[in-house]
């Protein structure tokens, strides 16, 4: 229990954006907001703030959104057709504990079956006015991986519960530009229509608890599959296939013939090239990136590529030392040559 509390304290201290110390702020860390409109586009402003410089920084950005929106809404491209429009709305998603989250929604119609919808979130340490981005608290590989694993498990569960409601269960968080807002015990990711789900689902919200970032998941995510292990002996390396964790995508064989087009050891072949998207050696690809949950090189993932012999999964290719029957990528050739 003490270890958990210390871990949680470390993260909360690193998230000064959520719990900054400033005696000038209100007791509950809440700021006063007032609604305004600029040429028909709404925005909010922080008023009566004890720190005028902090308020000025936030207010400049919050108003600029409305000014930019008004310029587009009154542009020739929009005005030339009476059916076209560019509208925005604003929501205060969170305002306490010295954290402020403002969400601007955008609705644009220039023809077609429906409008296009977007959003932008503005998150601040409201005591000093500093803008906060996701990269400021998902600031390590461990935190990024844990947040992504949790996100994908939630999307997978929603998809299973309501088939068709989620299009992309393997979505990766954009920590540079991703939209989010605070809540009391974590943060909520916001996705626009078509980003993870059909237009009919509207904006999709996924809550990520800080506890997940600190300690990871206490329960097994919905996505990982656990193969039944079979002993492998006296087989040809070329008979051992590599598949994605869902067993849907072929990723090559363990053939030690470096001229074999299917071998993962053929540096010039589809599955051995460090440039091909189907190669586990592609540092930027789905199966080779240190950040992808489907990758052999993500040392935290529970869904690495699978080794298959005669249709039966028997092991994993992974740098995650906690995965049972896992083989590190750098040991694959030695393993194949030993068969």
Which outline best applies?
elongated
Average pLDDT level: 85
SSE run: HEEHHEEEEHEEEHEEEEEH
Q: Largest beta sheet, briefly? A: 5 strands, mixed
Helix content: 10-25%
The value of Rg in angstroms is: 25 Å
Task: Supply the number of helical segments.
Answer: 6
Determine the N-to-C terminus distance: 46 Å
Whole-number total of structural domains:
3
Written account of the structure:
This protein is α+β, with helices and mostly antiparallel strands and 339 residues long. It has three domains: 18-131, Fervidobacterium nodosum Rt17-B1 like (Heat Shock Protein 90), CATH 3.30.565.40; 136-215, Actin, Chain A, domain 4, CATH 3.90.640; 224-339, no CATH class. It contains six helices and 14 strands. Strands 11-10-12-13-14 form a five-stranded mixed β-sheet, with no helix packed on it. Strands 3-4-5-6 form a four-stranded antiparallel β-sheet, with helices on one face. A hairpin with a 6-residue loop joins strand 10 and strand 11. The two termini are 46 Å apart. 33% of the residues are buried. The model is unreliable at 1-25 and 219-233 (pLDDT under 50).
Annotation keywords:
6 helices; Actin, Chain A, domain 4; alpha+beta; five-stranded mixed β-sheet; Heat Shock Protein 90; elongated
Write the layout of secondary structure elements.
Elements: H1 2-14, E1 32-38, E2 41-47, H2 52-73, H3 76-79, E3 85-96, E4 99-109, E5 116-125, E6 130-131, H4 141-161, E7 179-183, E8 186-191, E9 204-209, H5 210-215, E10 240-243, E11 250-253, E12 306-309, E13 312-317, E14 326-327, H6 332-337
Parallel strand pairs: 13-14
Antiparallel strand pairs: 1-2, 3-4, 4-5, 5-6, 7-8, 8-9, 10-11, 10-12, 12-13
């Amino acid at each position: 229990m003490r270890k958990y509390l210390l871990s949680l304290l470390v993260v909360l201290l690193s998230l000064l954006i959520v719990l900054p110390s400033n005696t000038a702020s209100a007791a509950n860390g809440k700021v006063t907001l007032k609604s305004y409109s600029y040429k028909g586009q709404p925005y909010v402003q922080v008023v009566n703030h004890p720190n005028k410089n902090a308020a000025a920084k936030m207010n400049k950005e919050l108003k600029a959104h409305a000014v930019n929106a008004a310029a587009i809404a009154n542009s020739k491209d929009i005005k030339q057709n009476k059916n076209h429009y560019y509208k925005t709305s604003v929501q205060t998603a969170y305002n306490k504990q010295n954290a402020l989250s403002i969400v601007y929604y955008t609705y644009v119609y220039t023809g077609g079956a429906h409008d296009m919808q977007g959003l932008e979130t503005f998150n601040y340490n409201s005591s000093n006015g500093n803008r906060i981005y996701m990269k400021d608290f998902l600031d390590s590989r461990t935190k990024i991986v844990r947040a992504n694993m949790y996100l994908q498990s939630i999307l997978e569960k929603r998809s299973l519960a309501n088939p068709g409601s989620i299009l992309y269960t393997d979505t990766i968080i954009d920590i540079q530009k991703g939209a989010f807002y605070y809540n009391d015990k974590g943060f909520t990711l916001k996705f626009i229509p078509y980003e993870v789900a059909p237009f009919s689902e509207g904006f999709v919200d996924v809550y990520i608890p800080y506890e997940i970032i600190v300690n990871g998941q206490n329960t097994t995510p919905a996505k990982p599959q656990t193969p039944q292990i079979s002993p492998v002996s006296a087989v040809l390396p070329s008979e051992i296939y590599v598949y994605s964790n869902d067993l849907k995508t072929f990723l090559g064989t363990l053939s030690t013939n470096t001229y074999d087009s299917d071998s993962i050891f053929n540096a010039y072949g589809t599955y051995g090239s460090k440039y091909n998207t189907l190669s586990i050696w592609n540092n930027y690809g789905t199966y080779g990136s240190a950040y992808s949950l489907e990758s052999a090189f993500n040392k935290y993932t529970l869904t690495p590529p699978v080794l298959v012999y005669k249709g039966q999964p028997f092991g994993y290719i992974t740098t995650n030392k906690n995965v049972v029957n896992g083989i590190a990528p750098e040991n694959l050739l030695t393993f194949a040559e030993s068969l």
